[in-house]
Amino acid sequence: MTKKIMIVDDNPDCLHSVKEALEYKAGDYKITCVSSGTRCLKSLENNEIPDLILLDIMMPKMSGWETLKNLQENPLWKNIPVVFLTARTDNIAENAGKFLATDYIEKPFDIDDLKRKIDNILKSSS
């Protein structure tokens, strides 16, 4: 069964490369890319609900932290697994990311590691 993954990142190069790599590695993912936390929430409001969200932390206007807070406050979205995918490597971000979200992955990352984490999360949440 096809799993829906939403990638939220303000960097178009990152969106494109992660989407292409995941589609290459896993033919059973349907991947949607959005460029901001606001667009993520708008997609969810339009009932485009993914099985998992890859979320950048450092974005203008609405950060990944704020986006996650909005997700967790909505009963329809609070159970969507969220993996922070970020270039931010400080201990506070890592510890908070692992505590608040389902997982935390630093950029640059190995696509096989990312796919393995996604697969494990999707198996455990189904």
Molecular structure report:
The protein is built from five helices and five strands. With 126 residues, the chain is an alpha/beta fold. It has one domain (3-118): Rossmann fold (3-Layer(aba) Sandwich). Strands 2-1-3-4-5 form a five-stranded parallel β-sheet, with helices on both faces. α4 (91-100) links the parallel β4 (82-86) and β5.
Question: Can you write the helix and strand succession as a string?
Answer: EHEHEHEHEH
**Helical amount:** 40-55%
The best one-word shape is: globular
* Count of all domains: 1
Oligomer: single chain
The Rg value, from CA coordinates, equals 13 Å
The structural class is alpha/beta
By DSSP (H or I, 4+ residues per run), the number of helices equals 5
The number of E-state strands comes to 5
Q: What's the architecture, going by CATH?
A: 3-Layer(aba) Sandwich
List the helices and strands and how they pair.
Elements: E1 3-8, H1 12-25, E2 29-34, H2 37-45, E3 52-55, H3 64-73, E4 82-86, H4 91-100, E5 103-106, H5 111-125
Parallel strand pairs: 1-2, 1-3, 3-4, 4-5
Provide a short characterization of the protein structure.
This protein has helices spanning 12-25, 37-45, 64-73, 91-100, 111-125; strands at 3-8, 29-34, 52-55, 82-86, 103-106. By secondary structure, the chain is α/β, with parallel strands linked by helices.
Short descriptors:
single chain, 126 residues, alpha/beta, Rossmann fold, five-stranded parallel β-sheet, 5 helices, 5 strands, 46% helix
